[in-house]
């Protein structure tokens, strides 16, 4: 049970279901910023309908949960940035063909120029992005110690 919680990845079965209709959540979905400690999550349909449950009110503050937004430049989502960093770590710097194969969504030229422009000239940024990722994942880990296992979990 603990393990399922720790690997809060892209697999829809890893996320808790919508509190409103119990469907599996796909991004973007809504997280109530006021209900807790366990995340109160709603799909967009239930959120739009103004779903309320026990303490949860429809006028609560909320966060839109998604990793599908541009961070550094248009055309590259946060998810793709993480995938690029992971692919470069897996394949080794300079192996752009393999990196692109692992990425699937970008050509080797796109991977190389994006990486050189955003990460090589900005080493600080890549470590910031990795620590952000770590923080985000360990929030869901609920005190679980296997943090390394979830560091790069898409």
From TrEMBL:
Pfam families membership: Myb_DNA-binding, ZZ_ADA2
Keywords for this protein: Metal-binding, Nucleus, Transcription, Transcription regulation, Zinc, Zinc-finger
Entry's Gene Ontology molecular function annotations: chromatin binding; transcription coactivator activity; zinc ion binding
Keyword rRNA processing: no
Transmembrane feature ranges: none
GO cellular component, one term: SAGA-type complex
PANTHER family given in the database record: TRANSCRIPTIONAL ADAPTER 2-ALPHA, TRANSCRIPTIONAL ADAPTOR 2 ADA2 -RELATED
Protein name as it appears in the record: Transcriptional adaptor 2A
Species of provenance: Sphaeramia orbicularis
Gene name as annotated: tada2a
């Amino acid at each position: 049970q603990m393990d399922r919680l720790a690997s809060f990845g892209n697999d829809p079965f890893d996320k808790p279901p919508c509190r409103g209709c119990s469907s599996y959540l796909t991004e973007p979905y809504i997280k109530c910023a006021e209900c807790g400690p366990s995340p109160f999550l709603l799909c967009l349909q239930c959120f739009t309908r103004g779903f309320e449950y026990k303490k949860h009110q429809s006028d609560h503050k909320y966060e839109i949960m998604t990793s599908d937004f541009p961070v550094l430049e248009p055309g590259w989502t946060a998810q793709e940035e993480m995938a690029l960093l992971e692919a470069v770590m897996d394949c080794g710097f300079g192996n752009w063909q393999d990196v692109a194969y692992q990425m699937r969504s970008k050509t080797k030229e796109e991977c190389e120029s994006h990486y050189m422009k955003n990460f090589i000239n900005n080493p600080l940024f890549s470590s910031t992005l990795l620590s952000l990722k770590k923080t985000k994942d360990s929030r869901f880990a609920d005190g679980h110690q296997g943090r390394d296992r979830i560091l790069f979990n898409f």
